[in-house]
């Protein structure tokens, strides 16, 4: 009598969904920084947000002197919007996958589920990487930018770091060629540009993973305290949320062209929802097709729909370039 074929169980579906939907630490970097706006319906193909500015002023008058000229405070509202983008990744589950899972359950060795955790984790990670990429860099299709990102939003404040390190040319900008005091001056200069108007406050610093390592060098006049330790011990003054590491600020990914090189950088940001928000129309979910008896498989995909980032006040974002570099091939 032929052995009965294994089936796709409810437990398999529940495990797959939970494993994919639950992010690991530091995967959703962009979501850890800015507020998420979920007002856009999942069926939409574009989003619209309302941008509100306060209007009016306050009157100062001498006590005892009456005036009918008191100004009234109001709001000036306008609508802004952009496209939505679908991010998806998936895999097949075959009859062989199910049979192997059943064999593992019977033997008590190995995972009882038909898809290895590595594939589930990779599915989630690929989507998270694309989400971060759209938020930070926007999206370019066919050589044309169809969506702005945080790092290239029109109107943000940007400049090169000081060329005061050792070496020549672009080497003078690199954090690895600077002493702790020079690195601190770069951070303070960016903070001064962000906060100089009195309207914004630096909440944190997005920094490349490699650049972060150069903060571990000791400061010569601080009893072996590293630059990072000093900054974190004074983070309420510098930026309360500290440093958020991301490979999206590496020269290879950022691709800011300076001469014959790509350069990376760092980004200071005000995290107020008045400055920027992430637009999520449909959060990450897992969908399954019915089992196909003819082909002997089923498809599973993870999918989300986002609008990337929407920056209301570009002056609340400051970019600095030149901290790391790679040759353009």
UniProtKB/TrEMBL annotation:
| Name of the protein this chain belongs to | PF09950 family protein
The lineage, from the top, is: Bacteria, Pseudomonadati, Spirochaetota, Spirochaetia, Leptospirales
What Pfam families does this protein's entry cite?
Answer: Major_capside
UniProt source species? Leptospira interrogans serovar Grippotyphosa str. LT2186
